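Um, can you check?
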Amino acid sequence: MRHKTEKSYTAGKTQELKATHALDIRVEVKKEPNNKKKPEIHTSVKRTSFASYAVFILTIILGAFSLFGCDNNFELPADIDSIVWADKLDTASNGMPMSWEGWRIEPYSPSSDKLQRELKSASPEQYFALHISKTFSDGFTYNGRTVSDIAAEMQENELIFNKLLQLLKAGDRLKYGELIYTEGTPEGEKWTKSLYDKTIEYYGEDFLINYVFGGEFDRARAEADLASAEVKAKQLEEARQEIYEAYHRSCADEIEKIFSDFGASTVTKNGKLFVFIRKEQLATIEISDKESYILSLAKRRNYEHEEGDIPVFENSVTGFALEKIYCQTFDGSQGYAESDSELIEKINSMIEAGQFDTDSVIISFSSSEELTEELFSGIRHENINITPKYQTSSFARLAVKYENIDLEEIKKLSGMQEIKGISIYLQK
């Protein structure tokens, strides 16, 4: 669980004044002859002069603070409803590039269309709640590897995985070599030469020789290497996620400083940086690499809810029809659980991964019989969509709040013969 950190910076905070050169004040005093007595200055006159000098210096300092700080008098509107947030019902855009005043808008964010629209039409004084990130650099290095390195490894591993998967189906035929198209297999199967040549070209002789040699197919080795490739795929996905997170952590302080210095309020909450800024301020910010910053609207739920505000299910419910339940996970693991406790762990990790980004979990059902709303009356859902039975199947899609997920009810429905499959995933 992430530790909650919350910092609030107001744009009206006093900026530090750093003098680049010392102020050198010299008072020239005309020297009197040594034999001439110097005039005495009364103590009260000395005090008055010092007081006047102090007032003069204080006035300069206050004036400087006023000069440097006058544009940063930020106050978050008391009415949080007046801030532009992402809408709960926003739908994803088509991914087309968007920009405004030199800033890039996250093209795949559900609220990208709304952000672009509001930035064009809202008043100059309108406040926006933003998440700000930087374009990812493929050259960023973490634990000795760049993103490009990991991407190349993932591509190579995926190619090997797919070849092994196909080889488990074709290996018992390929062990016959050219006989498969000249004479055919003992079982009577015969390929064309062109099919054989294309198959050999796909695998590559250097790859095939590890599994097909001496007229035999080493299935055990192929299965072991396939399992290893699957494990490696998970490790590479975790490494890629780690490097993305490390990159954004490295940028967070930079982004926070830039926007707070320009008069925005920045708050780090639930592991996310929120930037509250007026449209007018956003339009006037000028930085050298402006086009590398990406804006997206923040979700109000993320800001208002506290970390840990999610349910945690205990591993006490048993009897699920596990072969029917697919749980969409975020760790690269298989969706189907091998035990009841593993299923519950998957649901818990799924919800934890999506907390503060969404209100709802989607639970969908496929059935060989007609479905009705009454069948799902035991699940407190926000909305439900049931499609009529077409040929052999009917489907239902329920949006359920975290706190209303009922594991006992899911277990009961999974045990029904007509229910053929259940899919559980986060609503984006």
